[in-house]
Design goal:
about 70 residues; alpha+beta; 434 Repressor (Amino-terminal Domain); two-stranded antiparallel sheet; about 35% helix; about 20% strand; globular
Length: about 70
């Protein structure tokens, strides 16, 4: 289960010293803005692994532990 998407708990994320909005991230990932907004506002408890892959790819992240924290339940 995903507890947090680091950097997305605000409405923007720094990518290579530039700020990227959720709208831009939506455009880059083809994930609906509403979905990203719900994730950033902790209104979703689960996230599709495909979305994690797309977000990491769009942000140039090679280790997903940079953007998520996994917790045991």
């Amino acid at each position: 289960m995903v507890q947090d998407i680091a950097g997305m708990n605000c409405s923007s994320y720094s990518q290579s010293n530039r700020i990227i909005s959720l709208r831009e991230l939506s455009r880059l990932t083809d994930i609906q803005h509403a979905t990203l907004s719900e994730l950033s506002n902790h209104k979703r408890e689960n996230i599709n692994f495909y979305h994690i892959e797309k977000i990491a790819e769009a942000l140039g992240i090679h280790d997903i532990r940079e953007i998520i924290d996994l917790i045991d339940k």
